[in-house]
Batch of 2 targets.
Target 1
Amino acid sequence: MAAEPIEDDAWRDGATDSHLAESLGDALQARARSGQPMRGFQLKRAALAGIDLVNHGSRSGYQLHDTDLYRADLQNAHLFALDLRGSSLMKADLRGTNLHCADLRDCNLLGIRLDGARLDNVIWDRQLLQERRGRERQRAGDSDAARQLFEEAEETYRNLRLHLEKAGLFEQAGIFFHREMVMRRLQMPRFSGKRLLSWLVDLFSGYGEKPLNVVLFSLGLIFVCGLLYFLVGVRHGDLPLRLALERGWLANLADLAGCLYFSVVTFTTLGYGDITPHGLARPIAALEAFAGSFTMALFVVVFVKKMTR
């Protein structure tokens, strides 16, 4: 028996909560297949378990924009490629749901239940809704509201990360872990030591998710220290290697290359001994050697963490 059609006003004013409750899923399926727009529907606590909103025979899915699905029951639903942009899925039950290729940008995902859901190729926001709103409140000077939104964003990122890890989607899980830690940092007092330390960990390694950050920091430190050695001078046997304006640019370039070589040797703590520091170059070399040992150990930890996934 075909589902009784529901008027547009009923979809948007929440009358569907009580109207045709048993066949609401069938009515929504029929609405989707009719090609009529689906926007701004009020489906709070709707019983939609097992609903099929897959646009069969088409590479693009149906659109269900700006819909309120607060605490909706969508267990084992088929939502392949469904465009849910702008919708609220707060505390919605999507256990066992097929969300493959679904578009969840601009959605409120706080408290969403995703146990056993298929999450392959879901289109996520680079920054979740709560994070964007929190940053807006922060720019407006409302620190209390911003902190509350950052807390909600942290909780949402953590929830999504855990479900993505269970699904074996470690690359996306790593991205959400990084955002989770950023949200935790933004809740700390602005000029506190903990926040500064957290920012440094993010800068150097992306909280263990960005090995390239460690490599770039290493190259930058080697280059900066090489320039400092070139300015203050080091010795290659009895010959000084340093900037000398009275000499030609080729000679200075050769000395700069020697200083960069010494910087690499110092950073990696190889210590061949063919070039030696003196004067102000000694504390620079000591600092670079210490930083190099720490940075190489950090790179190994971050790289192994990424590869063992």
Note: DSSP finds nine helices and three strands in the chain.
Target 2
Amino acid sequence: MTGLSGKVVLLTGAGSGIGRATAIKLHGLGATLAITDVSQEGISQTLELCGGKHYAQTLDVSKQQDVENRVAEIVASLGRIDHVFNCAGINPTAFPLTDVSEEYYDKLMAVNLKGVFSVTKATMPHVTTSRGSYVNVSSILGVRAGAEYAIYCATKWGVIGFSKAMALELGPKGVRVNVVAPGYITTPTNAGVAKGTDDAIKEMERANSLGRMGTPEEIAAVVAFLMGDEAKYMNGSVVEVDGMMK
């Protein structure tokens, strides 16, 4: 990938999983990183894996004032923001809709959807000036439905609708907005992986035409591509990275 060396990239949810793998990938391509996550321990570990010389602070994307303050601090520290990777999110728990609590609904909406809105709004003046890009994380459940995942689906379908609208709004200003939609990925927050049982993992593998789960590094490679010069005519795209679910 070309065009990322020296660019400043803000990553949310970079304390583990896809966010961490993407930070490591972009570090290797010469980008300057603003590593954020709700977990102090997580960002400290990611920072160490990226050479220890990037900006790294906690950020709760569900709190708009926290987002605005952190973005201002990043710009003051690093001078600008060229690209944004909206990766912070909460993975789903299967619930019949009648068992979904208001607290669960509010939490998923606040992080998975409002978080993307808040970070995008706060960074727009800077990314527009840089004529950079956004890559937002949806899910394969953002393009197809899943029984007992109604609220999660709503947030991830919402990310795609929001991203496509922003692509239309920001495209004339030279800013691209694209989406990556991962399938089953071996991350610590994947519910099946977290169960730690062979049955859960084998069930996810059987549901995939390639017979395996994806890795965070495979998603990171797509994110880096979408930010790079090779993807400069991609805007409003949704890239499904799921190995082809059955």
Note: The two ends are 31 Å apart (CA to CA).
